[in-house]
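FAQ

Q: What does a record look like?
A: Structure on top, sequence underneath. For example:
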């Protein structure tokens, strides 16, 4: 637990951000202000049940200097989750990714610099590019950046801005790069949430290419705990990789979903692969585990996935309004 009393969490009505806000409220005495533009990926309902005396939602743009400056001035710590994140969308229109991920981060960094606040930046394993499918290598904090999509390129650029502000201006900042998250409150455009809700809807899951692409999965609750630990004990200027070491191919994930929902293991369809689809991501979280003594609460992927499926079963009113529009968009792309 940190000694700080107030956090500003950007993107705190989105998937990972809202889970982090919930984690902070459960495990600390910190009050939280959420700044979220409430685009399609942000959902007011994801934070609507949180205590109003400890959590305030402000609808606004991380790229708006006036709003950002006011909220940063009122906070002790800034945690920056706000980002455009969906690879498919970045291939269709990169412009929002440049505005939010690069210009938005710049706006936030300048406000943090003016007010001397502690800052934590949420990045992604995708900044490192991809790995060979059967190679033993994993990304470390010293791996070179090699992004392959507009999404990952803009996230890489925002990381470099943070590092430059640390070196040039003495910003008290840390960065974490996390592997693929899953869990409650994830938009149904994302892989696991989409396939789970497809099966719940009587639809067949869909896999890009042959389904051989591998991702390193982590439950969002474990990601939240890691960020809180970095804020409490992380060294300023450092990057920490957050992963639960749960590599699975997309095909394995879908087959596990089908098994957990009582469906045949071959009840899925293959669709055309997306351009530039990274082959494999895998992180080495040794630094986080040894230096900060972090351990995942969901070390077994199958247990975390089962809990996630239960959440979507029990919260249809939350995801149902997103589903039709999401599937209609994918249908226009033949996916």
């Amino acid at each position: 637990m940190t000694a700080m009393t107030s956090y500003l969490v950007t993107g705190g009505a989105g998937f990972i951000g809202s889970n982090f806000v919930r984690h902070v409220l459960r495990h600390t005495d910190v009050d939280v202000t959420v700044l979220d533009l409430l685009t399609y990926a942000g959902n007011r309902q994801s934070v609507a049940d949180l205590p109003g005396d400890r959590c305030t939602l402000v609808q606004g743009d991380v790229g708006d200097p006036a709003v950002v400056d006011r909220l940063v001035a009122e906070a002790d710590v800034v945690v920056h989750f706000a980002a455009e994140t969906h690879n498919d969308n970045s291939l269709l229109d990169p412009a929002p990714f440049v505005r939010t991920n690069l210009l938005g981060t710049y706006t936030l960094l300048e406000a943090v610099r003016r007010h001397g606040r502690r800052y934590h930046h949420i990045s992604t394993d995708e900044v490192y590019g991809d790995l060979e499918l059967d190679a033993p290598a994993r990304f470390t904090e010293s791996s070179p950046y090699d992004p392959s999509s507009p999404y990952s390129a803009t996230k890489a650029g925002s990381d470099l801005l943070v590092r430059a502000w640390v070196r040039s201006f003495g910003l008290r900042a840390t960065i974490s790069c996390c592997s693929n998250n899953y869990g409650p409150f994830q938009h149904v455009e994302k892989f696991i949430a989409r396939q789970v809700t497809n099966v719940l809807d009587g639809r067949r899951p869909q896999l890009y290419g042959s389904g051989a692409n591998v991702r390193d999965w982590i439950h969002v609750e474990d990601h939240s705990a890691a960020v809180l630990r970095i804020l409490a004990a992380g060294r300023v200027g450092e990057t920490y990789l957050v992963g639960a070491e749960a590599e699975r191919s997309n095909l394995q994930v879908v087959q596990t979903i089908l098994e957990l929902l009582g469906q045949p293991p071959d009840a899925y369809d293959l669709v055309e692969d997306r351009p530039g689809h990274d082959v494999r991501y895998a992180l080495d979280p040794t630094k986080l585990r040894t230096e900060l003594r972090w351990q995942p609460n969901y070390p077994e992927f199958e247990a975390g996935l089962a809990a996630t499926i239960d959440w979507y079963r029990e919260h249809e009113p939350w995801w149902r309004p997103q589903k039709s529009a999401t599937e209609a968009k994918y249908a226009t792309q033949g996916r």
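Q: Is there anything notable about this one?
A: The longest helix spans residues 95-115.
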